[in-house]
Amino acid sequence: MTKPTTMKQIAERAQVSIGTVSHVVNGTAPVREKLRKRVLDVITSLGYQPSQLARGLRRDSTNMLGMVIPDITNPFFPGVVRGVEDVAFNKSYRVVLCNTDNDPAKEKAYIDELRSYRPAGLLIIPASERGLSSELGYSIPQGIPLIFLDRRPSDWKGDAVMVANEEGAFQATQYLLKMGHTRLAMLAGPSHVTNAVERLAGFQRALAKHKVTITPEYVQETRFDRDSGYRSALRLLNMLPRPTAIFAANDMVALGALLAVRELGLRCPKDVSIIGFDDLELGMFTDPALSSVHQSGYQMGATAARLLLERIAGKKGRPQQIVLPTELRIRNSVVLPNDDSHTE
């Protein structure tokens, strides 16, 4: 295996001191243009790549942004990552991605590991919001900017970028109510995650506004994945009376509900209407096409990255809690309730 090129080799080939090479590579002091060009030519010819970690140890930070997400298999999160990466790359930062599988222990291990690489900043979509920012206070050195995305720990007072979860859920539920559905159910997402709690609050607010009461069993807690949505939807659809409409806390849960509907020999939307939350592109290709609350993962990621880079650059000011808007997108998975639906 070929050994990496060193600054000493560059200095010998360019006939300059190691200090001059270091100044050219790290930009730590001005170098005469003639010498600078000579060093750069040698660097190019030898294929030298400076160690970002070594530079980070000298400067106490690198050009690396650490990003921690809860589930790489959920199609919503790659859009968030892409928004972060596009903004970061344009400013010469690089993103290191870690997937926690919604496991707080794995999350902590990744954050501790990232700390040793001197990241310029961190972006985290937490696996669980309970007390996380208190725990991170012991893990993250002072001076490293940190932004939470999508889910915000309840005790976090710093920068965060979310969407209007409660309002989006309220609009979706209100639409179902205005369509005439009164036997509404919700696949509510994990009770320990902020955005799921907010979406449940929006669902309940719409019911209260329209003075509609539902049986408590019509609200089922799920994980944010298709299998959990499928199993919880089976429970709902076997209840008597069966709900005529389901609001799912995310699109993956809604896809699980669609599968449960088909497996039981029912029809969506004739027998049961379904609305999701995320507006994933794949929802447009389901049968029927899925109605959903739109949130832009890309915009969320890009907004968080811009704010993080401002903090890295030294911009002060009060912490920002940015809330991005949502929009209800109606397709083919919602109709008026079927008068012949099973009510015994």
What secondary-structure arrangement, pairings included, does this model have?
Elements (H helix, E strand, L loop, with lengths): L6 H8 L3 H9 L6 H14 L5 H8 L4 E6 L6 H15 L3 E6 L4 H12 L5 E4 L7 H5 L9 E4 L10 E4 L1 H14 L5 E4 L6 H16 L9 E2 L5 H12 L7 E4 L2 H13 L9 E6 L12 E4 L2 H16 L8 E4 L2 E3 L15
Parallel strand pairs: 1-2, 1-3, 3-4, 4-5, 5-11, 6-7, 6-8, 8-9, 9-10
Antiparallel strand pairs: 10-12
Helix pairs in contact: 1-2, 1-3, 5-12, 8-9, 10-11
CATH architecture of the largest domain: 3-Layer(aba) Sandwich
Overall body shape: elongated
Report the portion of residues in β strands: 5-15%
Helix fraction bin: 40-55%
Going by CATH, the homologous superfamily of the largest domain would be Response regulator
Strand order of the largest sheet: 2-1-3-4-5-11
Strand runs, count: 12
Q: Are there runs of 5+ residues with pLDDT below 50, and where?
A: none
Counting DSSP H or I runs of 4 or more residues, the number of helices is: 12
The H-and-E topology, N to C, reads as HHHHEHEHEHEEHEHEHEHEEHEE
Average pLDDT for all residues: 88
CATH class identity of the largest domain: Alpha Beta
Radius of gyration: 26 Å
Q: Main β-sheet, in a few words?
A: 6 strands, parallel
CATH topology of the largest domain: Rossmann fold
Terminal residue distance:
75 Å
The total tally of domains equals 3
Which structural class do the helices and strands define? Answer: alpha/beta
